[in-house]
Amino acid sequence: xxxxxxxxxxxxxxxxxxxxxxxxxxxxxxxxxxxxxxxxxxxxxxxxxxxxxxxxxxxxxxxxxxxxxxxxxxxxxxxxxxxxxxxxxxxxxxxxxxxxxxxxxxxxxxxxxxxxxxxxxxxxxxxxx
Length: 129
Description:
- The chain is α+β, with helices and mostly antiparallel strands.
- It contains five helices and five strands.
- The radius of gyration is 20 Å and the shape is elongated.
- The chain starts with a strand and ends with a helix.
- The relative contact order is 0.15.
């Protein structure tokens, strides 16, 4: 979990986020989530969706690759939410980042198995005719 100020600078992160990314809290504090999370596999679509929602003060949920200090990105789910004061002014944002590598791998395996099953069915239908 990370908390940012209204300008997007991280002012706090928990140990789980440090462990997940490989960066120490000292390396994280003062940077933006994009500074920490962007990697060579990140897409402009996922980054744009997150940044756009942030600057509109909206909730967001994004899936995509997240950087790790060891240069091995991981598939992540990121959920962000604005925090407003009593006057309706945005005072901070928080986001929860989860490693979804296992879930993504299962989705990919399911796609492959589905494709194989479809090909087998087509072949069976062809043989039956």
